From TrEMBL:
<feature type="region of interest" description="Disordered">
    <location>
        <begin position="208"/>
        <end position="229"/>
    </location>
</feature>
<protein>
    <recommendedName>
        <fullName>DUF7041 domain-containing protein</fullName>
    </recommendedName>
</protein>
<dbReference type="InterPro" id="IPR055469">
    <property type="entry name" value="DUF7041"/>
</dbReference>
<feature type="domain" description="DUF7041">
    <location>
        <begin position="9"/>
        <end position="94"/>
    </location>
</feature>
<feature type="compositionally biased region" description="Basic residues">
    <location>
        <begin position="208"/>
        <end position="219"/>
    </location>
</feature>
<dbReference type="Pfam" id="PF23055">
    <property type="entry name" value="DUF7041"/>
</dbReference>
């Protein structure tokens, strides 16, 4: 048996068991006075910190752990039984995460993570991402070509930073048909936001051109042998 080591086990992450096991194994590596490597010791720590629901899901494994690699077997079963199945993950992705109080780029990272194991095309990821943005932001992004999902998340962040109140008002109008916001006002807001995007793209292009100019080699000066007298 290993010597008793001091460790602080992270709380079980029911929404992402694989992530929890990654955190757990890092904790084992940092144990004092030495890392925890014995399978049975890791198994005991794992069982003691599973949530009640997770423990019930692997009840048979806990009651009959076996003598060979009990921790590895338990880890495999917890992830398989408690993690989202592929079909569940796809449905959740297609159903769409809500933007809420998050930045568009934060929402995009969540959707990107959920799509990694399904080989989702960028065009589909872009479509799903755009569906969760305010209507006015969608309209502006639709005018940018070419547009990738990654680029859309970056530009959407910038749009909301520049005029969060205006985008919010436009979104509320589109969803609730508010009488306080006229069509002409919405068109003005849309025109303003599009101009902001154009200026953003122009500034980025200018920065790239300056960088390229600085790195472009200077033309060699003419030598005396090349001069005509």
């Amino acid at each position: 048996m290993e010597d008793i080591s001091a460790v602080k086990i992270p709380a079980f992450v029911s929404s992402d068991p694989a992530l929890w096991f990654g955190m757990l194994e890092s904790t084992f590596e940092l144990a004092i006075p030495k890392p925890i490597t014995h399978e049975r010791t890791k198994y005991n720590y794992c069982v003691a910190h599973l949530s009640p629901d997770a423990a019930m899901a692997v009840r048979d494994v806990i009651l009959s752990p076996g003598s060979t690699n009990p921790y590895s077997k338990l880890k495999e079963e917890v992830i398989a039984r408690c993690g989202e199945s592929k079909s569940q993950e796809i449905r959740r992705l297609l159903a769409g995460e809500q933007l809420g109080d998050r930045k568009p780029s934060e929402l995009f990272r969540v959707m990107q993570r959920r799509s990694e194991s399904h080989n989702v095309a960028d065009s589909l990821l872009l479509e799903l991402f755009l569906q969760q943005l305010p209507p006015n932001v969608q309209s502006i992004l639709a005018s940018i070509q070419p547009l990738t999902a990654q680029k859309a998340s970056e530009v959407a962040d910038r749009i909301l930073e520049v005029t969060p109140a205006q985008v919010s008002a436009a979104s509320k109008y589109s969803s609730a048909n508010s009488d306080n916001c006229s069509e002409s006002e919405l068109l003005k807001e849309l025109k303003f936001l599009r101009q902001e995007v154009k200026e953003l793209r122009r500034s980025r292009s200018f920065s790239r051109n300056r960088f390229n100019s600085r790195n472009r080699g200077k033309s060699p000066k003419p030598t005396a042998s090349n001069l005509c007298w």
